[in-house]
Amino acid sequence: MPLTSVEQTAQVVSQTVLVVDDEPTARLALAARLKRLGYRVIQAGDGKAGLEALRRERPSLTILDWMMPEMDGPSFCEYVRRDPELLTSQILMMTSHDQPEQIAEGLARGADDFLSKAASKYEITARVQAGIRAATLVRRLSDATEEIRQKQEALEQELQSAARYVESLLPPPGAILPGVRMVHAYRPSLALGGDLFNVVPWSEDALGLYLLDASGHGVSPALRSASFATFLRRDSLLRHVGSNDPGAILTEANKQFPLTESGHYFTIVFASLDLRCHTLSYATAGHGGALLHRRSGEVCWMAQPNLPLGFDPSTTYVTATLPIGRGDRLYLLSDGLYEFPAASGELWGQRRLDMTIQALGQQPLETVITETIAEAVRWQGHEQFPDDVALMGVEVAI
Hints:
By secondary structure, this protein is an alpha+beta fold. The chain has helices spanning 5-13, 24-36, 47-57, 73-82, 100-108, 121-168, 219-231, 234-240, 246-256, 349-360, 365-380; strands at 16-20, 40-44, 61-65, 91-95, 113-116, 174-177, 180-187, 194-203, 206-214, 266-274, 279-285, 290-293, 299-301, 320-323, 329-333, 389-396. A hairpin with a 4-residue loop joins strand 10 (266-274) and strand 11 (279-285). Helix 6 (121-168) runs parallel beside helix 7 and helix 10 runs antiparallel to helix 11. The protein is elongated.
């Protein structure tokens, strides 16, 4: 909508123009013309005084004479463009030089536009208005950039807060059953996701373990994972499922957590360790991040081809069972630990993860966890993973 004459007058009055010229007569004449146009005008008689006024007043437009003693117009421009606080200032250079090479020099050294000293009052008005418009756009852009920066800082603080909350839900490392130890590492990405893992105590010789991932990134999937973790508590599972069977647990979870309106879902691996029977039972839903590293050195990936939770409420998830013995280690991990690229674009992949764990062998579990992540960092060439990285290792010592 076009501005009214009152609004246009108000805009003009709000603008300040700095005139820098060592010739008093020319400076006063130009200042008088600008004041008649409605601008607030400040004056400086040389380049040094002009810089002081520019820094102090931050005018919308500076009209600058080319020829001045000590500091000429182009030198003034160069100084302004080197100063981070002043470099966006709009500068209109006055000159009697109208040769193309001279104008090119002035532009190259920092002027935004030129005004001939012989210019008509109509040209002066037009070029000043153009300079003011440019200054207004630059300031709006600067304000928008600052607003974006502040919102980005607020978002990063929000993500850091969410990451701390997720970490508060993780189990403490150490003994989780007599003769069974657990060590874990969690590395949230800048784009916080929904990886979460925990231990579910069943009895003195049995427990459940899970690692789940909510699709998407940000605070929302992290909070959805936290909500799911409430369902996976022992009392809740006994109430809703009535069993510690992993397949039955995921089958019920599939009904409890359908796809969201925006199409988000969960993947999960759930395992039950029974020391009395020396068995490891497990079920997965769209999740391939579980492997059993036997004391013999064999690595067995625990993966089942099935849908993530929430796609089809009639899906039944099946439990698989493996024997587990002394010295065997179970690793639950997020796909963020192997689905990331090196600088060349090549993914690290499950095979390299597999080889890393095999190479570390029976070194202390803490060492395996730490060195596996360190090897992944070396592969990608930097510390920050593109997705959340979670790795839980469980060692059976009896």
